[in-house]
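Forum: Protein Structure Q&A
Topic: Joint prediction for protein chains with partners

I've read a bunch of threads here and the consensus seems to be that you should model interacting components together rather than docking separate models afterwards. I'd like to see that in practice. Below is the full input, 866 residues plus whatever partners are listed. Could one of the regulars post the assembled result?
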Amino acid sequence: MNVSYIGRTLQPAAGFKQPLVLTIGQDIKGFVLRHLGRLALFILTCTSVLAVFLIFLFVILEALPFLGKFSIVEFLTSTAWYPQAHDRPEFGALTLVVGSVYVTTAALVFSVPIGVLAAVFLSEIVPFRIRDIVKPVVEILAAIPSVAYGFFAVLVLAPWLQEHLDFATGTNAINASLLLSIMALPTIISVAEDSISATGRELREASYALGATRIETMFKVVIPAAHSGIIAAIVLGMMRAIGETMVVWMASGNASRIPRPWWDLSQSVRTMTATIAGDMGETEQGSDHYRALFAIGLLLLVMTLLLNLVSEYFLTRAKKSLGKS
Amino acid sequence: MKLIFRIVFDRIFTVLTGLTVFIIVGALIAILGPMFRRGVGAVFLRGTVEFRKVQLAEFGHGDEAQVRAETERTGLVRAKVYEMIDRFKSGIDTRQLSERATEIYRAFGAELKLKEIPREQYTALRSLSRDIRDRLIEAFAKADIEQISQDVEHVLQYEKDERLKGTASEDFFRLARQYQKAAAATNLNKRDEYAKELAELEQIITELLGPRPTEDSPTLAQFRYGATRWDQAKKLLHKLHWKELWVEQQSSASLMRIEKSRIEEFAGTELEPLFRYIDDNLEKMLEPKPTFYWRYFLDDSTPGHYFGGIGPEILGTLLLTLLSMVFVVPFGIISAAYLTECTREGPVVRIIRISINTLAGVPSIVFGLFGMAFFVLFFIPLFGGPSKPCILAGSMTLAVLTLPVMIRSSEEAIRAVPQTYKEASLALGASSFRTFMKVTLPAALPGILTGVILSLSRVAGETAPILFTAGIAVGPVPKSVFQTTRTLSYGSWDMAVADKLSAQVPHNQYGMVVALVSLILCMNALAIILRSRVFKRLKGH
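Posted by a regular:
Agreed with the consensus. Here's the joint model:
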């Protein structure tokens, strides 16, 4: 098969059946197919967008009748959560929100210093060989399922706390936040380490050349330079902690009241996630209580979305600032 | 001077950072250590004869003839324990004795009714036996040995009565003699106390050896057998010797635990040698043997996981995770391919990426809510499926949950394929689609596999999303994807918090969670090994 092309005849190699130059029809067909294929891929890729959309849609749809029937202000500001009351059930989620924030904050108090220092240790101080041992340990911590942490909290830590620290109950805010801090550590360490090791070598060398010690270099040069990434790490750790269900459900004691005095971590609290997990089994589908739980889910979703945006903002800023330097 | 401070601060800082790593490693050991230490006991144990009985009766494993021989052998040694208790009891348990007397009285009455005797004689005999019964019951209630003898003598004088010979009433006299003998041997003032203690003792012995062979088999499986494990038997032996008491302390409000010797309480009675006997012969009564219970991973369990294994849980976990992979892997690879090969960064891609990040940040419990509202109540019924939690709904929920993990890891794997591979293929005239299918994808496949394994391990451990979509704590092994299932993660939660019965079998509690954790850690280890090999290969040549 010979094809005439720009006045010359191309001789295909022996046994080669394909035309060397496409006809117009084949060219168009290829073009159309290529773009159709891309379109199909694009549509399939949009599954994630669709999934996010559907999650919001269905949680909002289930929560909407509740938000129409009860006042949103009361939902957000009242501390009375009596969903099972016969005559007049009350749905005030403030206690639960406070519980979630309380446990999360306590967890961050434990995990942020440890996480940031560990990130400094891993990226600055140890030789690569030790780093290769410690990193898998952190990965294992991230891989252990939350129900196993909860199991540990209930059956090992709670009795220990009760016996050795003389608490009234072992399942309390400190138990939950200790476990949450361990669970948030891997996130904090890996993101913070990335951002610390991404800061330029020149910065450190300049600082050391001026006679600064390591601690001064870290706190006055490297950490300020990497602050966006570290903040993103903390926010991501916070997201992990606030959305965690099994550990807080099992370990926090599930007493729906605001701790008083506020610093007493040995009291039981109840979080939003634990309330959804614990109450859903007892509710009738379509009842006010059921819808209230979806409203809490919506609140949780909005909170994590906001935190997600904050972390995105800081991560982009970290990338940009490092790109400049 | 200032320099010294600076150096000291620097050193402290270095030590502190090192300390944090110790804290992290320590936390890992503190969490996994006790878990594994106790969990391993579910599989490696010293199983007693009771264990082999459970295996044979409940699950149909083991050598029947051997178990029967062991049962007989141990039964002979155990018989003596029961004999000792019974002998001691005959002087102690007044209620049982009274019941026995009443029983004899009734039996005698029934016997009389069947006989054709004149009415007057019948009434006389009836009142005579009633008299004997009342006298005996009176005697049982008395604490003074002389008064008891009087009563018993009074009863025994009727033994010579011709009318009573060869009837059921002869049991009265046997009972009276037995009682007289037992009463002489025990301190009658402490009788009530003894009775209470004996009931406790018998309870412990039942826990240790199982119900007596003469008793009916209890309905609940956990009461049907004695201590199946030697460590359990040792604990019960300790409980047998030492009675646990909680006493009020003067200084504080909490109670203090003390242990009181049971031997001392029974000192001087006929029961005292029992303790010695059980001590010496426990091994013969239970015949412990080192056992490797590999069937733990296959066996079903009795309620509360009291006996048996975690077979259905493992099956359910595998079903759920593999099915979710079927849904998520195609989407993950296609999305990753599109994001890496077909587009450049732009607003549309930005939206997709933000969506993926958002999806990754959604709390797992919200996935549970979404799975229930969307898959269970809307999507599956749309295609004619049941509007109930089921494996299909659960695995779809988990697929959505793990989509970001899958996309990110596939993307990373595809990006790791050197550009030269693709360029070589394109230069040969292959289309971009063909290049992707024949060159990029095969080269990226091990990396993608790593991502699949990581997603699997993530999915296997998730509990919150399947709470309302697929999981149950107790139930049959699923036969189709439209049924609920037990899983390791749900089971771990249930055994730790919800199921009070499983608190009595800590080895099974820990066994479940250790099975889950080891499954996940093995998958992670596999992924780490695979990943390092892939990167070596792609970089190395």
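Chain B has three domains: 47-79+198-289, 93-185, 325-476+516-540.
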